[in-house]
């Protein structure tokens, strides 16, 4: 679960000359996708929205780990038995996932689905698994247990029990696919959000430099942490404050550290901006797991266009760290934002 991302429209911005703002919503991927676009024609806007949401549904059918008919479910069932040939789009998804796993030294990992179940986050029933269960999960978790032959589109799991879970990158992948539909339809200004986790700002509203996006602060204070202007960019946020459980006085976050098999400690919220929604989605998880200094090395080395806002807690007062973040940070939510340098 990520923090809510809000678009701010200035007075009079919703209508300019022949362009009007139309907004549509569609349930998919266990959330609600929201599309706002400028168009001169209501019927055309509705037609475009239908095409966009059809594309989201198509990607969901590819990546769903809840549908037995999905390509991802087929791989989960068969890739441990023998190498499996998959389609080009699924291979692209797996290659991108493996890339972010490799450059983050496993901070991002699409094999953590069983960890989420073991810690009780799928059914919203918090549970601390015993050591023996974690030992078993270690044999079934790890991105290196997924072997890819991109040239032949072959996938093989090298250990029994491995399961792919698209939760940390799938919505971004769907958003990128949908944005390609918008571009093909020659839409010049649109904002597409995948629930509260990832959005993409295409072009800019009339007479604006871009889409103004509010990044709320962590709960319970909420409010505005920062406001950024995006144009042809994505923003993804990962947030611990909205999905967690408390047991024996200890708070457990739903975002997993794949290397320790335990929920991340000390991080509250992360937002990452990048031209690719797939990348920003994955990198928001990377930045949540890694220490801020390690995040900077990853972003500087492998995502030079990215910027990040990281909220951590050590004691009672949250602290903020920023890397190439282009907007002010409201100090009501944390101490003065510390710039991170490479």
Rg, rounded, reads: 20 Å
Count of domains: 3
**Beta-strand percentage?**
25-35%
CATH fold assignment of the largest domain: T-fold
Number of strands: 20
**Would you list the SSEs in sequence order as H and E?**
EEEEHHEHHHEEHEEEEEEEEEEHHEEE
Q: Low-confidence spans: pLDDT under 50, at least 5 residues?
A: 10-15
As laid out across the biggest beta sheet, the strand order is 2-3-4-8-9-12-17-18-19-20
CATH superfamily of the largest domain: ApbE-like domains
Determine and state the CATH class of the largest domain. Answer: Alpha Beta
Mean pLDDT level: 91
Range of helix content = 25-40%
Number of helices: 8
Q: Do you know the CATH architecture of the largest domain?
A: Roll
Query: How widely separated are the two ends?
Result: 29 Å
Structural class: alpha+beta
Shape: globular
Largest sheet: 10 strands, mixed
